[in-house]
Sequence to fold (317 residues):
Amino acid sequence: MSERTPRVASLLPSATEIVCALGLGDALVGVSHECDFPPQVVGRPVLTSTTMSPGRCSVDIDRDVRRLLRDALAVYEIDVDALERASPDVIVTQDLCDVCAVSRGDVLAALAQIARPDVRVVNLHPLTLDDVRADVLRVGAALDRRDEAARVVAAMDARLDALRARTSGNAHRPNVLTLEWLVPPMVGGTWMPELVAIAGGTALVTKVGERAPTLDAEALAALDPAPDVVLVKPCGFPLERTLAERDVLDALLAPLPWPALRDGAVWLADGNAFFNRPGPRLVDSAEILAACIHPGPCADLAERHAGSFVRFVPRGV
Fold:
């Protein structure tokens, strides 16, 4: 281990959670405006902001994001002055999604402005659970915490293996559809099919590592097989924010001829804290999924994660 703990700036929430899992929460000299976990990071200097207006509904957010990307404008911005004051040795960022966080190119441009070519930029690009494991190890190597990173990955794998062994005993593996946006409906991709499989289900529409596709109402109604279980977890939305879109959810789901609606197997989950953050809490996400897919056998997991997800019955069903 080096004599001096590196000064770390994390520009996305999952990276912040990884840094803290490595025991380096106190080394964070700056975080993104969306970093809110663990609680110790709240109050750290904020180095980014969004160009989006706050409090918009999912329809407005989608329209504004598409407009910004079409016009080659940034969804997020770096506060260059705050970055200079933070004076990090290492910055953790990503190049997976321009809608998720500032890009690596933005980071390099900001470092050029403050004449800090010596800062090490750690770039994350997770599409699968293996990628998430590799990212934890990559951050650990960059921060001279290789042993800690290996322990974090081992702990994640142990819990996932235990869940996989537990759910593999269920003869019935329901067809599961996960939605990560409401209007337009987007099906969960990347690592979500893996989480569904570990939780004892069969993922519909997407395969491991695939980007989230958009489906229209006709395509949703025509899904064959139709979903036995539906989990709605909009990216960036805490549970109460999703519940505020009750009218949108009713309009989207109520007309669909799915067994999940007939059997009361539609669930809403916290898509901000879980599922869409490729870090240690993907394990919790898998456990929440198992509680939705197999609510009887996994009742203890439902109790463990109470408050993170709820059953949803659309009006008119």
In short: The chain has a mean pLDDT of 91. The chain has two domains: 8-125, 171-311. The first helix runs from residue 13 to 21. The radius of gyration is 20 Å.
